């Protein structure tokens, strides 16, 4: 293969930053591409050169292969690294890159096409002797045939996009009556994500482990595996926590599964980094799920237990070099666990969140691969993943404890993230004991995840931080005040009442001794002593250290994060106009997005829970359902319309 000295990264976010980092370490010149929405993104600043490739929508920028190839020509790049997602598993794009005389850092188009089509891939795997889940992969895609095949296989079944991955176009169906809508939704997501609406159906294996093998192949016929990753903790088939090695895999399973993964790669003449995914049942049997013909989101855990840089290996293979590692050289040391940081609201059905990152403070002592920075906007146009936090330890328990500590220290202010939820997941005994299966989240959070009310000591800390923010604001407005007198009062120990509002909930507290090294706060649930260290960056509440970070909120008050919990703290103002809550029957958009379909008309009689419209946001489709039985009174949007959070979509009136 041709040598190259510069590489264009056809992606955005954390993976673009991560690829740029290794490329620069290897002396390669880096070229970033960006949409108009990403002009200020970290990956743009990190590269040697950056080229705008179109408007914000992915179809007009990051999925626009012609624009990316044009950017490569403009920049003189000799290779293109696709990252993951977007065009990374698009065979036509890979072929186009090589036809343009450039090196595609990944497998060739044949391998991508062979493994990207789940139906065809499964047929190839069966021929190669790789264990597969029973299912249907046929060409007849009529609803009647798919329904008949599902009945033959037996419920529950998995409906999957044949061309997809990452949970897009995937539905678990437990009964025949739910199949038609599942087929409709899966086809729509598949078409939007992969421009291919073909589906396959497989038997749903209950409570398996999701275990994958990292494979690597060069152009000299060498294929090896780098051990396994356990990705069982998932929500809607999207991975939440990943670790290496798997707590459920012994050396015997590792060897058998590794051999099957190598056979899968050899069956398609693979080149570069790839991942073969399996379902592992309680007996130790495993079944081929799919092969991802690219670098995985969770590759850092493999890097940490092997000591290898997988991106550097990708570049070496792409330049025609032979693998420097043989299978017998593989040695796994220690344990690594990764969590995915998302802009989403776990307490509100994990709905994606948009907004500006008011402050980004990555933790120390753990690895963080992120694509955000202070002041960056999180838009509705792309996946809501902000980055990954990864911890390594000599044992699994050390890695788990370090990861929890890192998440508590980390600060992501200005918008809701899943940080507190991740801490909760990692703290569950079921995870700590290594027993998590793909049913983990449903079993431990059967009603969804609920955020507890803030602890009394956290309320006390919030009150003092708000007063400190107000004092700093007052000092900024005067030039005559001696800073040493700030907070002084002849009766400084007298309790001062504060009506504190935390995320729209009022808490009445009393603060005594504000401005002094030790402060006393009375809350509804107790009395707390707060002692600050040097620079007020360390606080002990009742003698216990609390991890916190804060910054001024544009809406007034401050954003405060205490050990993973994000809060908007300000003075309570009863007359303040809030966003309001839609009344019963008023169905609103839970986030900005595109109205894909409206499935009812004015005058229709609807049942509670019936789908009224479908909203597409952050690459996923969200069903808006009736919150009561009644009659559709008004349709407030049209199909194809872009709506903002809170926009009225459908009004359902009480039936007379």
UniProtKB/TrEMBL annotation:
PROSITE patterns per UniProt: ATP_GRASP, BC, BIOTIN, BIOTINYL_LIPOYL, CPSASE_1, CPSASE_2
Ranges of residues in domain Lipoyl-binding: 584-653
The entry's keywords: ATP-binding, Biotin, Ligase, Nucleotide-binding, Transit peptide
Cofactor: biotin
Residue stretches making up the ATP-grasp domain: 122-319
Domain of life: Bacteria
Biotin carboxylation domain: residues covered: 3-446
GO MF annotation list: ATP binding; ligase activity; metal ion binding
InterPro entries assigned to the protein according to its UniProt record, in alphabetical order: ATP-grasp, BC-like_N, Biotin_BS, Biotin_carboxylase_complex, Biotin_carboxylation_dom, Biotin_COase_C, Biotin_lipoyl, CPAse_ATP-bd
Family annotation (Gene3D superfamilies): 2.40.50.100, ATP-grasp fold, B domain
Classification via Pfam families: Biotin_carb_C, Biotin_carb_N, Biotin_lipoyl, CPSase_L_D2
Protein name: Geranyl-CoA carboxylase alpha subunit
Organism from which the protein derives: Shimia aestuarii
